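testing teh design pipeline on a random one, pls ignore if ur not involved
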């Protein structure tokens, strides 16, 4: 898994990560009573209601910390692209981390705004001496994800196909999806995520309301944890995301512990295009 994919899991799985500045109604299929509304046996993507409004033109800029060091910045932006929605994510290393292992990753995902199903993902990853271009297509008519990757250093080309369900989200769009759900304490949601490999099911739990401080200010927030319940990271990764406890559900802080250490994302600012 690339550095950007790990960042993206912090941003869900979003992620994963996208506040909504317009008032939103809960999904009609969702249970807002505080009880669990899904399990790994019924992992699914719930379409947004017809009046749902995406936070187009909003960029969320995060400072990234690793073992108390400044590790870099991550920026995530949503916008419309014709009949589709587009999410872009940028990850750049800085400070000591940049000296040890330079990272400059670019990520663009497109999805169907009526269903939240991911359509395509395009990546440019520059990590140390490695440089790769990757494209992932989600071909729902064949129930396949198709990954095409080129190693820009060696010229090696990779083609991989994997089975997918009728609808999946990707590692960055998943944050928008999670932020769109009713985040009442006690609720849980299970949904499929694909990054070109085997589809993983992610279980998100709305755990508690807390107050957090970030460079962008202090916020009343709801803490949501997300972890894969299948796939190679099952039992090895867990992400905590703090969304503002209002209709916006702005992700103001994220923390995750992986085998190589913990990463913390703190909101620095929101830029408007």
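output:
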């Amino acid at each position: 898994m690339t550095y950007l994919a790990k960042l993206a899991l912090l941003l869900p799985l979003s992620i994963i990560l996208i506040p909504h500045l317009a008032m939103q109604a809960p999904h009609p299929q969702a249970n807002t009573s505080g009880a669990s509304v899904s399990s790994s046996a019924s992992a699914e993507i719930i379409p947004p209601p017809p009046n749902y409004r995406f936070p187009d033109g909003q960029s969320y800029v995060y400072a990234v910390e690793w073992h108390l060091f400044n590790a870099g910045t991550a920026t995530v932006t949503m916008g419309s692209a014709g009949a589709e929605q587009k999410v872009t994510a940028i990850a750049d290393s800085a400070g000591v981390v940049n000296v040890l292992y330079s990272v400059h990753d670019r990520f663009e995902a497109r999805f169907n705004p009526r269903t939240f199903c991911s359509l395509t993902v395009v990546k440019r990853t520059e990590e140390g001496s490695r440089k790769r271009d990757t494209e992932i297509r989600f071909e729902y008519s064949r129930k396949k994800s198709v990954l095409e990757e080129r190693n820009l250093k060696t010229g090696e080309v990779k083609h991989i196909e994997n089975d997918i369900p009728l609808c999946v989200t990707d590692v960055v769009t998943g944050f928008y999806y999670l932020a769109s759900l009713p985040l009442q304490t006690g609720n849980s949601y299970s949904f499929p995520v694909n990054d070109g490999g085997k589809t993983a099911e992610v279980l998100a739990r709305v755990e508690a309301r807390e107050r957090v401080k970030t460079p962008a200010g202090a916020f009343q927030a709801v803490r949501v944890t997300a972890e894969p319940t299948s796939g190679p990271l099952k039992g090895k990764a867990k992400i905590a995301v703090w969304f503002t406890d209002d209709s916006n559900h702005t992700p103001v802080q994220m923390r995750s512990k992986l085998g190589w250490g913990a990463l913390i994302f703190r909101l620095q600012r929101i830029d408007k295009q």
